[in-house]
Amino acid sequence: MKSIPIKYIFLIGICFALGFAILNSVSPPPSADRGPDFTDAPTQNENSKHIEAEPEGENHIIDWRILRELNVTTGKRSPELDKLNNQFVSIPGFMVPFEDNMGQAQEFLLVPSPQACIHVPPPPPNQMIYVKMPPGRPAKMQWIPIWVSGKFRIMTNDSPYGKVSYYIEGRYTKPFGGAE
């Protein structure tokens, strides 16, 4: 069996670390009180129906650090995290599809770093979000960082990769391009 040269392992590690650093440095711009307007959000493909407007209220931009405030053993969570339950949110991350389905995914996990895949132990449940897109509007498969927007819920779900502490009823996804 041939071994992988150490320089390649080092380069892969640097790439993962850079992706993780970019996602953890995201913070909302000062003028982003309301977040993106879902009525003007991009659709998933040419055949998609227009995305309905979000209900009245705010769209919160979530940082992965706040999701760590759920103790997966005891279930205790911070008041700040509790306030996000059943709210519309946007969060950057990396898509981990459950299956390869012609470049689209109806359901997938969103994780904070690109190295969270089936080849390594998955992140803890409080660092994974189960995303389910609306019927007939799957998300385009992306192997780059993306934004996911939708209704956020704190609830335990089972996935092919184990327990997941969060769920988003997806509205749309789009490539990550800095602050939402």
Describe this structure in words.
With 180 residues, this protein is of the alpha+beta class. The chain has a single domain, classed as OB fold (Dihydrolipoamide Acetyltransferase, E2P), CATH 2.40.50. It contains three helices and eight strands. The chain has helices spanning 6-24, 64-67, 79-84; strands spanning 59-61, 87-97, 104-105, 107-111, 129-132, 139-140, 146-159, 162-175. The strands form two sheets. The chain has a five-stranded mixed beta barrel with strand order 2-4-5-8-7. Mean pLDDT is 75; it is low at 14-18 and 20-54.
The helical percent reads 10-25%
What sort of overall outline do the alpha carbons produce when their principal axes are compared?
Answer: globular
Strand order of the largest sheet: 2-4-5-8-7
> Do you know the CATH architecture?
Beta Barrel
Q: What string gives the helices and strands in order?
A: HEHHEEEEEEE
Query: How many β-strands, per DSSP?
Result: 8
The separation of the N and C termini measures 46 Å
The total of helices stands at 3
- Indicate how many domains the architecture comprises: 1
**Rg calculated over all Cα atoms:** 17 Å
Major β-sheet annotation: 5 strands, mixed, barrel
CATH topology name, in short, is OB fold (Dihydrolipoamide Acetyltransferase, E2P)
Describe the structure concisely:
By secondary structure, the protein is of the alpha+beta class. It contains three helices and eight strands, in the order αβααβββββββ.
List the helices and strands and how they pair.
Elements: H1 6-24, E1 59-61, H2 64-67, H3 79-84, E2 87-97, E3 104-105, E4 107-111, E5 129-132, E6 139-140, E7 146-159, E8 162-175
Parallel strand pairs: 1-2, 5-8
Antiparallel strand pairs: 2-4, 2-7, 3-6, 4-5, 7-8
